[in-house]
Specification:
Elements lengths: L6 E3 L11 E3 L16 H4 L16 H15 L3 E13 L19 E16 L3 E4 L1 H4 L4 E5 L5 E10 L4 E6 L8 E2 L10 E6 L9 E15 L13 E7 L11 E3 L4 E10 L9 E5 H14 L5 E2 L2 E5 L2 H6 L7 E6 L4 H4 L7 E5 L2 E2 L4 H8 L6 E8 L2 E8 L1 E2 L7 E3 L14 H4 L1 E5 L2 H7 L7 E6 L4 H6 L6 E5 L2 E2 L3 H9 L6 E7 L5 E7 L6
Parallel strand pairs: 9-14, 17-24
Antiparallel strand pairs: 1-2, 2-14, 3-4, 3-6, 4-5, 5-8, 6-7, 7-8, 10-11, 10-13, 11-12, 12-15, 13-14, 14-15, 16-23, 17-18, 18-19, 19-20, 19-21, 21-22, 25-26, 26-27, 27-28, 27-29, 29-30
Length: 519
């Protein structure tokens, strides 16, 4: 894999890792990226033949033989992918940075330069269909594939899914050895797995490493990959492994000891750029579904809900005893399935299909595992009242699954001038001039002009300056007088909910508690 190919991922998994997530070789929101487990009908045309029957190894020799047999069975299905990418390289002015630069013109003309990216892939159908990562082949002018026996083919792109970082290639070949698909829903932490690919250098093709599954369900909000911010990004659900994965391994298979695919190697966490025992793979259930749709239908159908959301702040979760992974709906797209079901901005989604949310990203991942036309039951909390809404999911070919908002951008609630000492907020009624500057349709509500970061409750509530308080304790807030009246109605020591509108127009909800010693 080329140095240019490395792509940093954002801080992942609830702050458990530091920034430094890298795509291993080249480095979805409005609900739409599908992760549904492949069905038998889907798998019918993914004619893998690498599965082997192995009894549990009872001796060291038996254990050694188990790995050898998997390597022998799987390696013929593993390919090396070389992606030729043309970049413009502007010639440097030799006088740049000297007193002569102004006399001898600007930088020289650009020259096209061909760079070779390196990645891996795996044959999923014997007629020459190959799965790899999208970032391996993205922007490539020419693609070539090399098999274990040294045979080389020109490859064409059948289709891609940038939001799941998957792509399907086709080569002109037949009777190729294709990988057998395993069930990634049945893998377990501590299970032995093997990774295949071409790490670091073309000469290291079909390298095999072994390790265990370190963790499951590592959720990560996907980057937007050039899409408009209104579309947002999807949610990735990774298998974590300590099997050695290095740049160049991206797109290669992660298999169990029966020679079955359980994941596609995709990303690593590394401070050095190389393997440090923290690698990630896309589950085979996702790969199976996406690859089958691309091959048989030409595109990927995505379940569509039509909301933007973010994680609920700690004060809201604590004060109202909500599931820790609750999600705050900040925007509902007009006419979307969520809108038709009655979901509103400011609603708190506490669970889906009867399961409480432990991580707000589970919402996007669960919707992604469903199909257009299916019904999803959303457990919500609206103004302190628990409800269940049934949403019939729509379909949008290029939409994202859901847009998870960064909590630093979508935050909530408040206080008043007279309550600055009590709650730690500076407030002001919205004036016509302020409404004009903030792009509001009318001068309604109370704007937060300052927050006391030394106040723990305010710090954890997510409130920020320039947010507009429009609802508090179930009452609409039109001005400072209304705010003070509603606030005084809250009993000292009681918690109350606040809804605010951010400068970008999105809604956020949080909870505060009136100090118990208030007179």
């Amino acid at each position: 894999m080329s140095t240019q190919g490395k792509v940093s991922l954002a801080v992942v998994f609830g702050g458990a890792f530091l920034a430094g997530i890298l795509f291993a070789t080249a480095g979805a929101n409005l609900f739409g990226v599908g992760d549904a487990v492949g069905t038998s009908s889907q798998a019918a045309n993914l004619d893998g033949s690498t599965q082997i029957e192995q009894p549990p190894p009872n001796t060291p020799n038996g254990f050694e033989t188990a790995f050898s047999e998997v390597a022998q069975s799987v390696n013929p299905a593993v390919v090396q992918i070389r992606a030729a990418k043309v970049v413009d390289r502007r010639m440097r002015n030799p006088f740049e940075g000297t007193p002569f630069e102004r006399f001898f013109g600007q930088r020289g003309p650009s020259e096209p330069e061909v760079r070779q990216g390196l990645g891996s892939g795996v044959v999923v159908r014997s007629d020459g269909h190959i799965v790899t990562n999208n970032h391996v082949i993205q922007d490539a002018e020419r693609l070539s594939v090399q098999t274990l026996d040294g045979e080389q083919y020109e490859a064409e792109v059948v289709g891609t899914d940038p939001y799941k970082d998957l792509a399907v290639l086709k080569v002109d070949a037949s009777d190729m050895t294709a990988i057998s698909f395993g069930n990634s829903e049945q893998v377990s932490v501590g299970q032995w797995v093997m990774a295949f690919g071409s790490p670091l250098d073309p000469q290291l093709n079909n390298s095999v490493t072994a390790g265990i599954i370190s963790a499951l369900g590592r959720l990560q909000a996907s980057p937007q990959r050039g899409r408009s911010s209104s579309q947002g990004g999807g949610v990735q659900n990774f298998i974590q492994t300590d099997a050695a994965i290095n740049p160049g391994n991206s797109g290669g298979p992660l298999v169990n000891l029966q020679g079955e695919l359980v994941g596609i190697n995709t990303a690593i966490v590394s401070r050095s750029g190389g393997n440090q025992g923290i690698g990630f793979a896309i589950p085979s259930s996702t790969v199976e579904r996406i690859a089958t749709q691309i091959i048989e239908e030409g595109d990927v159908r995505r379940a569509y809900l039509g909301i933007r959301y973010g994680g609920a702040p700690e004060t809201l979760v604590d004060n109202e005893n909500l599931p820790k992974g609750s999600a705050v709906v900040s925007q509902v797209e007009e006419g979307a399935p969520a809108d038709e079901a009655g979901l509103e901005a400011g609603d708190i989604i506490t669970g889906i299909n009867g399961t409480p949310l432990e991580d707000y990203l589970q919402l996007g991942n669960q919707i992604a595992s469903m199909r257009p036309g299916e019904e999803a039951e959303l457990q919500i909390n609206r103004d302190g009242e628990a409800r269940t809404l049934t949403v019939t999911l729509g379909a949008r070919g290029e939409s994202m699954t859901a847009s998870s908002e960064d909590r630093s951008e979508s935050n909530g609630p408040s206080t008043a001038e007279a309550l600055q000492e009590e709650l730690g907020l500076q407030l002001q009624g919205v004036t016509p001039e302020m409404a004009r500057r903030l792009g509001l349709d009318e001068a309604q509500g109370v704007v937060i002009t300052g927050v006391d970061q030394s106040n723990r409750m305010i710090r954890e509530s997510g409130l920020q300056p320039r947010q507009i308080i429009f609802k508090m304790a179930g009452e609409q807030i039109s001005d400072m007088d209304t705010f003070m009246e509603v606030y005084r109605s809250v009993e000292p020591g009681d918690a109350f909910r606040m809804a605010v509108r951010n400068p970008d127009g999105f809604v956020f909800v949080t909870s505060l508690r009136r100090p118990a010693d208030t007179e």
